Backbone:
């Protein structure tokens, strides 16, 4: 239950993804969802509403239904520009909101108590700004900001050429809300293909821990079902995959192999329709493979 002042969430996706080779990092998939979907799913219940700070053609985010707010300062000056854009958007569109919380679009494990704890840290220290930390490592772009600072921030960006979030934050009283970074860092961020692979491993480990907790104290074995649909043309791969999933119990995994390229669209759509989880999708010279987790559904 939200107990803090009304707060607008902004997901920062205004960068150029240079370390991903220019690939749209925000739309990369982890366990069947985009990184943006992961962040929005965790942040939305904590906020009055969400917006997305992104530059370029906004239509690539049409499926999110989030308002897309570009930088109001040109030439990609960094995350401070996204924070400023969110402050100015809130002042015009949400005049009753006095706070924004920012988080990068590549941190899919952010805490579910992020906003509550940032407000508590700010309140306790009577600070203007509060930022998150894991262990002793501060995360200056995962932070709570008063919208009243928007003119000061514009001055710093436009007239003083301040670019680093840390440099501007240190001009104000700053509170820290810290989370443990063991056994995993809740602010793990994805900048490179290796980071994405590490995030997949972490997500699998967290999912496994969740399954074990749900099954305790008894033990339950989960099946891995192989389904080779090579040579079949749509809609047969979708129909066979649906039939297989509906016959499986929660926690079972289905490994599907297809050669019809349309399956690359139709099977992920089927997984979303059924409410299951696409753990992995890989394409190679011979076809496409999918690893699907059968979720628990109401009777």
Residues:
């Amino acid at each position: 239950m939200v107990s803090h002042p009304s707060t607008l969430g902004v997901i920062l996706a205004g960068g150029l993804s240079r370390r991903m080779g220019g690939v749209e990092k925000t739309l990369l998939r982890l366990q069947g969802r985009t990184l943006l979907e992961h962040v929005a799913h965790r942040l939305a219940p904590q906020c009055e509403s969400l917006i997305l700070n992104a530059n370029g053609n906004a239509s690539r985010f049409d499926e999110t239904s989030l308002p897309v707010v570009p930088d109001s300062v040109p030439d990609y000056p960094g995350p401070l520009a996204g924070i400023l854009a969110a402050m100015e958007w809130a002042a015009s569109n949400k005049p009753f909101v006095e706070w924004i919380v920012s988080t990068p679009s590549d941190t899919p494990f952010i805490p579910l108590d992020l906003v509550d704890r940032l407000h508590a840290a700010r309140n306790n220290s009577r600070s203007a700004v509060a930022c998150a930390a894991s262990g002793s490592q501060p995360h200056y772009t995962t932070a709570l900001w008063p919208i009243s600072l928007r003119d000061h921030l514009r001055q710093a960006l436009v007239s003083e050429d301040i670019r680093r979030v840390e440099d501007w934050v240190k001009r104000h009283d700053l509170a820290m809300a810290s989370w443990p970074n063991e056994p995993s860092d809740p602010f793990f961020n994805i900048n490179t293909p290796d980071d994405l692979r590490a995030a997949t491993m972490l997500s699998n480990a967290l999912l496994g821990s969740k399954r074990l907790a749900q099954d305790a104290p008894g033990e339950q074995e989960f099946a891995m079902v192989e389904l080779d649909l090579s040579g079949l043309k749509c809609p047969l791969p979708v129909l066979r995959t649906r039939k297989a999933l509906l016959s499986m119990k929660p926690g079972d995994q289905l490994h599907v192999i297809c050669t019809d390229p349309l399956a690359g669209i139709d099977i992920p759509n089927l997984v979303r329709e059924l409410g299951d989880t696409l753990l992995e999708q890989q394409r190679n010279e011979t076809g496409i493979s999918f690893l699907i987790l059968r979720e628990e559904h109401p009777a």
Remarks:
- The radius of gyration is 21 Å.
- Residues 30 and 197 are 9 Å apart (CA to CA).
- The chain is about 30% helix and 25% strand.
